[in-house]
UniProtKB/TrEMBL annotation:
This is TetR family transcriptional regulator. Keywords: DNA-binding. Residues 1-25 are annotated as: Disordered. InterPro entries: Homeodomain-like_sf, HTH-type_TetR-like_transc_reg, HTH_TetR, Tet_transcr_reg_TetR-rel_C_sf, TetR_C_16. It comes from the Bacteria.
Amino acid sequence: MTEDAPAPRRRGRPSRKTASEGPDARTRILEAARSEFAERGYDRTSIRGIAKAAGVDAALVHHYFGTKDEVFAAAVEVTFEPALVVHTVLGGPPEGLGERLARFFLSVWEDPATRSPLLAILRSAVTHEAAANVLRDFVLRRLLERIAAELDVPDATFRAELAASHMLGIAMLRYVVRAEPLASADPEEIVAMVAPTLQRYLGER
């Protein structure tokens, strides 16, 4: 090796200097991962791409999160508590259930802080089983089962799943496909159109 040749690159744990960039680097990685997964879906997102977007070495991504699946799980951790959702949706007159559900659902998607991980889940669930599991676990077990348990209607779980399919279809067309005029419609206009259908699913015996 000549004096001008670069030193061989070490593999494994990042240097103390790199790792000492600490929470700021970790936060950048998570933000970059959310953006990459939301924009590209699971299959087209890579550790190298996340690292490049975050301005760090790929070894640092592995150091903090391990595998791509683990990066995905950390990136899509939803930033609201399902119990609060259930209280928001069910805590009012029965005749307003459909409207409250539609308004809450759209408020979550309209907020950039919660839209990004949800987009990542929705884009990736179509092609990747880990993402589909996240969607099933969060939407079906943590949300719908709790809501269904409080509904005084026949086939409550089935009805709650129908409501979820309706809202996820809207999310897909509005936020992923960006189909017009739905993509540009005022959220309150969507609530007004959708609420009666959700009310029929969840409130009519």
